[in-house]
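ARCHIVE RECORD
Type: protein–small molecule complex
Small molecule: 8-OXO-2'-deoxyguanosine-5'-triphosphate
Source of inputs: curated submission
Record status: active
Notes field left blank by submitter.
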Amino acid sequence: MAAARRVADTLFKAPKVKHYTLAFLLRDNNGTKEVLLGMKKRGFGAGKWNGFGGKVEPTDATVSDAAAREMNEEALVTVLGSDMEEKGTLVFTFTGKPEVMHVHVFQVRSYSGVPSESDEMKPQWFTYDAIPYASMWADDKYWLPSLLEGKNIVGQFDFDADETKFYDHVLDVTDA
Ligand SMILES: Nc1nc2c([nH]c(=O)n2[C@H]2C[C@H](O)[C@@H](COP(=O)(O)OP(=O)(O)OP(=O)(O)O)O2)c(=O)[nH]1
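STRUCTURE (tokenized, with ligand):
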């Protein structure tokens, strides 16, 4: 559990920690497993495929509710906070930025509605063998395959200031 210890120390020492959610909608499409990703249209991570999420707001009752709210806003589906399954924690640091990002990672299988394009995201279903890692954050190929296998993850990725590559990382993967 080396990653969990490192994450705890990073969060303890950080001058400022901001909480974010990141959720992956999963479905079984006639026996083929698929995950919903969205092309981020603006802001932080624009031009990359990702799960759905954003900042936890003071008005969110729980982190799970924040994850559901973000998914509802960005993919225009209806998901309940109580259906969000917590899958782990990712911490991101960026050279020169005192603020540390604490990302709460979820998966969810229960939803209603049809995922549709919002101001922020253009959603698309991907089979697990066609995830567009080359157009995702550099760290995603390290942990997303484990997540899709149903594992839990705890990791930290320390990025250069330009956000394109990381120079250090730790990752624990455990059976759910
Ligand atoms: N897959 C992946 N997701 C990441 C990485 N880094 C990172 O911040 N994210 C996620 C966490 C959040 O879901 C999202 C960043 O949140 P955001 O800036 O879109 O937050 P928001 O929607 O509240 O922002 P806004 O309304 O102010 O534009 O990106 C990463 O390296 N990989």
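CURATOR ANNOTATION: The helical segments are 2-13, 63-75, 140-148.
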